[in-house]
Amino acid sequence: xxxxxxxxxxxxxxxxxxxxWPGAELYVKLVGETTIDGERLxxxxxxxxxxxxxxxxxxxxxxxxxxxxxxxx
Length: 73
Prior knowledge:
This protein is of the alpha+beta class. It contains 2 helices and 7 strands; from the N terminus they run H-E-E-E-E-E-E-H-E. It has helices spanning 3-11, 61-65, and strands at residues 15-18, 25-31, 34-36, 39-41, 44-49, 53-57, 69-72. A 3-stranded antiparallel beta sheet has the order 2-5-6, with no helix packed on it. It has a two-stranded antiparallel ribbon with strand order 1-7. Strands 3-4 form a two-stranded antiparallel sheet.
């Protein structure tokens, strides 16, 4: 799937991954708008990497143009 095709599924709460990644990456998920210390925090992507936990994720141009995205169960 392309990023454009998978984005609505990501927005619906599903977890996604690229088949072309080497394997330590478990999934990417979207965290919706929240608040911290009374201030609004805009939505953001997190990636879960095996043995490292979560970190912020920003898709690269290669990620955005890739057609190997899939849903993670």
